[in-house]
Description:
- The chain has helices at about 15-25, 50-65, 80-90, 110-115, 165-170, 175-190, 210-220, 240-245, 265-270, 275-290, 310-320, 350-370, and strands at about 5-10, 30, 40-45, 75-80, 100, 125, 145-150, 150-155, 170-175, 195, 205, 210, 225-230, 255, 295-300, 325-330, 375-385, 395, 400-405, 415-425, 430-434.
- By secondary structure, it is an alpha/beta fold.
- The chain folds into three domains: about 5-125, Rossmann fold (3-Layer(aba) Sandwich); about 145-370, Alpha-Beta Horseshoe (pyruvate-formate lyase- activating enzyme), CATH 3.80.30.20; about 375-434, CATH 2.40.50.140.
- The strands form six sheets. It has a six-stranded parallel sheet with strand order 2-1-3-4-5-6, with helices on both faces. It has a five-stranded mixed β-barrel with strand order 17-18-19-21-20.
- Strand 15 (about 295-300), helix 11 and strand 16 (about 325-330) form a beta-alpha-beta unit.
- Helix 7 (about 210-220) packs parallel to helix 8 and helix 11 (about 310-320) packs parallel to helix 12.
- The longest helix is centred in the last third of the chain and has 24 residues, at about 350-370.
- It is globular.
- The protein starts with a strand and ends with a strand.
- The model has no long low-confidence stretch (mean pLDDT about 95).
- The structure holds iron/sulfur cluster.
- Iron/sulfur cluster binds near residues 162 and 199.
Amino acid sequence: MKKQSVFIETYGCQMNEYDSDRIINALQAEPVDSPNTADVIIINTCAIREKADHKAVSAVGRYNKLKKNNPNLIIGMSGCVAQLYGKKLLKDMPYLDFVMGPRGIPKIPKIIDDIRSEHKQRPLETSMDVQDIFDVTPYHKKGKISGFVSIQQGCNKKCAYCIVPTTRGSEINRPLDEIIFESQELVKQGAKELTYIGQTVNSWKHSKMRFNNLLDHLQEINGLERIRFTTSFPKDISDKMISSMKNNNKVCRQLHLPVQSGSNRVLREMRRTYSIEWYKDRIQKLKDAIPDLALSTDIIVGFGSEKEDDFESTMNLIREIEFDTVYSFKYSVRPGTPGENMESHVPDEIASEWLSVLQAEQKEITLKKNIEKIGSNFNVLLEGFSKQNNKDLFGRTTHNKVVNVKNVDQSFIGKTVRVKITNAMQNSLVGEII
Ligand code: SF4
């Protein structure tokens, strides 16, 4: 029987990318790059910011036009927006065939079968059922060098601005043997680098195991060359974790550690549970252990009663730490979060101004750090053809820097090569094999 073809438009984080792969896998479907040839179109949504949530809803309207030529086309919405608005989406969009939250993925084959056989009631799957939550047949996309493994679902923190605990539920950690099994299978299927994902990935624990023990076990997997993990929570960076990172030669020299604000007052309002002194202490300990560690962070501007001097504290922090990358956003109120009822939100024009000041300064820091790499040599794991042209290959350093490598043929894809950096751009480096 011909496999059904599925087009998925994915919004948001790596967790959503992973979920999109799980959907394809659960359906045993043929993923396609164009919605025009698909039997099923799924918009896998993100609710973390208002903008992403609006984009996803308008995508549904756009794809609905394809039903004119293909009346059997099924259009569904999955992910956090689906979880958040559930029934309302089905009511507002009569052409939407199903709505399914992140925990509904194991049920997707039945959802599609029901639609094809009955076409009466449109399925709504938003229960917080934890059964089969990690039910994954290990699947690695052919030709890809890196892959994802989910080790945790949901979140137990209660950050005042965040919708994730509502849409993805409370934290559930995956048992070690399942993580090891999936990793081994992905390596057999061609993965050389795996990114372990969870909302607060370093709070992972199972039985008596903690995240540092997990890193030690992952190091033992034959054929796995590189280990990354995201997203870490500052309060859960333990000394043992730092020591495991230092002593594990497969763990990449890169850490994404969202700080969100440089002001203790704003951090308290955000309910982040750490102080800026704690954050800086962890960074110092990490740098003492791993001097070349590349750091990235997330920052929200305009939250709650943030004032000019709070924002200045954030600017001082980015100047002091000199992150390699900062993902910065203007706060947007999310329904059902504690932030929704907080007063004295910063006027939009002020938040926009702060955001552009921060982004402009960080742009300079990032470029300066990239330029400093010219003339240095790095190991680069080559992943495929460069996005800039079809001649060069691209890969990543252990620090997660993208490097476009000149004069190298495609037989090198999947290999780690030594590269001398010859040029630096805002978002990538250029180099040649030595
Ligand atoms: S740690 Fe905070 S920001 Fe991150 S997912 Fe959990 S509640 Fe949201």
